[in-house]
Design goal:
Nucleotidyltransferase, domain 5, 7 helices, 28% strand
Length: 243
């Protein structure tokens, strides 16, 4: 089974092709959020270098979030278009479980963290049981200080990984039971998206058509929040004028 994977949920843009348990090719660029310019050229170049075509793919694996609102829409639109034209399924993986998949078979608790702006992070809690990734706590948005306190007080040996690690590394490194992996594990990878997607597919999970898969945002975008605040102010002004 050949799977084309893609992840644009964070700063990194990543694509990969996995056939069964073999990684055929993977590209990762982690410098600027210009995913709309890079994603399709990366896919085309990767397939050409691998002597493959879209028609060879049996499924599309895509990270559905949480993460960058714009980034998620780019990969989702691309995955849906490829799925629709080629009549192949989409395998949906959330960005946090694919990050946890970077720590395959780790014996510690795993907390992926992605930047949610201000002092917050998207996070969840995982562990490997019997060689299988298991979700212990679902996706949420937490203040980084609150998350650090939770981990510190748990007394468990924990891995904290993801794009937001570099932003909060000073705080994280002060906690004895928090372990930060190598930089190669802190970036979202399409190969991990494929691996997690394949495991879910074998369990009959996460399989969608191009019509019934959507991004996971968890919370409203900053633009939506600002719009609602603006509307509340306008309503308050109108109410005051009518008194």
């Amino acid at each position: 089974m050949k799977i084309l994977g893609m992840d644009t949920s964070s700063r990194a843009c990543s694509v990969a092709v996995v056939e069964d348990d073999c990684l055929i090719c993977e590209f990762v660029i982690n410098n600027k959020k210009t995913h709309s310019q890079k994603l399709m050229p990366m896919i085309e170049t990767m397939l050409n270098m691998s002597d493959l075509s879209i028609e060879d793919m049996d499924a599309i694996a895509v990270s559905v979030g949480p993460g960058s609102f714009t980034g998620l829409r780019i990969s989702m639109a691309t995955a849906k278009a490829i799925s629709h034209v080629n009549n192949i399924p989409i395998l949906a993986v959330n960005a946090l479980e694919s990050l946890a998949g970077n720590m395959d078979l780790c014996d510690k608790k795993i907390y992926p963290i992605l930047d949610a702006q201000r002092t917050q992070v998207y996070t969840a809690k995982y562990e490997y049981k019997n060689d299988e990734l298991v979700e212990l706590e679902g996706m949420d948005v937490k203040e980084i200080d609150d998350l650090i306190e939770i981990i510190k007080n748990s007394g468990e040996e924990c891995i904290v990984l993801g794009e937001a690690v570099s932003k909060y590394e000073d705080k994280l490194s002060e906690v004895e039971n928090i372990h930060i992996p190598a930089v190669s594990h802190n970036v979202t990878k399409a190969a991990s998206v494929c691996a997690v997607a394949l495991a879910k597919y074998k369990r009959g999970e996460g399989v969608h058509s191009c019509y019934d898969v959507n991004p996971i945002y968890i919370r409203k975008s900053q633009a939506e929040v600002q719009y609602e605040e603006k509307m509340k102010k306008l309503e308050a002004q109108k109410s005051a004028e009518n008194k």
